[in-house]
Amino acid sequence: MIRCHQLIKNFSSKILELDFHHRHNQRMKIFPKQLNRPYDVFINHRGIDTKKTMTGLLYNHLVRLGLNPFLDSKNMKPGDRLFDKINDAVRHCKVGVAVLSPRYCESYFCLHELALMMETRKRVIPIFYDVKPSQLQVKDDGSRPVEELKRFQWALEEAKYTVGLTFDTLGGDLSEFLTITTDAVTKNLLEIEEEEEYIQTE
Q: Distance (Å, rounded) from C-alpha 190 to C-alpha 120?
């Protein structure tokens, strides 16, 4: 019974992937691959917690699907202006993946990226990676202006109350979780494309 359930799950995942590939190929005929092509997915993360595990592998999974994801270590080069590059990538992406980890809230850039995704009303998939939502807090250490602190706290609360995914490195299967995450990303991208097609036909 368990094997049958797994086969059905794998089959459904493959159908979703094939549907996405078809739509992606159709889109690429109109919008061929080029250097200034907008990013499909923005991966927001704390590098010290996840770059060598979750986020690097997720980036590779998405690239293999033919997507154009943004990950700072992969898409930025010496000479790039940090805020210009990151802000532009967030504003033009369709889906954001926020990998919330134990030291996430210690990073100004993590919180800034998250706030910008929320402010620009992107679809954000939160991933609670080795951390519970209740453990994520923006602390006031006196170094940030009050308005900026409120902005970060608001964005974090928005992420906490968005349906997301949870992964525990002690007992989780990373390979299976990456497949689940990739499916969630492609499903959201498909829904966005369908909404855009509907708006265009009205």
A: 19
Please, which residues have CB within 8 angstroms of residue 84's CB and are 6 or more apart in sequence? none
Taking phi first (over 0 means left), then psi (-120 to 50 degrees means alpha), and beta for anything else, what does residue 66 get? left
Q: pLDDT per residue over 37-69, tens digit each?
A: 789 999 999 999 998 889 999 999 999 999 999
* Per annotation, catalytic residue among 106, 113, 158, 195: 113
Catalytic (active site) residue 191: no
Mean pLDDT of the region 24-39: 56
Cα 172 from chain centre: 19
CA dist., res. 187 & res. 17, Å (int): 9
Q: How far apart are CA 153 and CA 148, in angstroms?
A: 9
Interatomic CA distance for residues 95 and 111, integer angstroms: 17
The first and second tokens of residue 179, run together, are: 């497949």
Q: Burial letters for 41-79: b for 16+ Cβ neighbours within 10 Å, e otherwise?
A: bbbbbbbebbbebbbbbbbebbeebebebbbbeebeeee
Contact yes or no for 44/113 (Cβ under 8 A) = yes
pTM of the model: 0.82
Alpha-carbon span 184 to 180, nearest angstrom: 6
